[in-house]
Every structure is written in structure tokens, then in C-alpha cells.
Amino acid sequence: MLYAVTHPTRVASLALVSPAPAAKQERAVYEAALAARNATPELLAQRKALQESGLRAHDIPATINASSGSPSPGYFHEIRRVSVS
Prior knowledge:
By secondary structure, the protein is mainly alpha-helical. It contains five helices and no strands. The chain has helices spanning 2-6, 24-37, 41-52, 55-58, 60-67. The radius of gyration is 17 Å and the shape is flat. The mean pLDDT is 75.
């Protein structure tokens, strides 16, 4: 953001990646909802399978690729509608 403000002619668009509210009083509600979305049985099973696969021990790039949707899908209200390319 600072770069965009400092150099507005060099920035055509921004992608904001944090849906967290700025106001402290709204943050608790947001964090509770995020925690609930991150604790679904499906997501917990995906994380467990990735951890138990041992992939990280021999292929870090593949681990990052495999976990790209796993660590923080709670940010997306409907994770199945998110496309990863």
C-alpha cells in the first residue's frame, strides 16, 4: 500500500489479500469465524494427510504446492469456488 501511495503512476491495480477487519471490536467475530472454517473435518484430514505423507522431507516445492490451498482456506467463505492456477 505504501508503494502504491508513494508511486501511484506505477501501480495499475492492487489485490488485497487480508479479509480481516481493521476495527478491533470486529476482529474477535472475524477470528472466531475463521477458526471455525479452518477446523472442518475435511480440512483437518487434508492437513493430517499432508503432514503424514513425508513429502516435506524430500520435496519442499511439492509440499508448498500441495499445501497452497490448505493452510488458510478459512479466508475463503466458499473454498470450493476458489480457483488455483
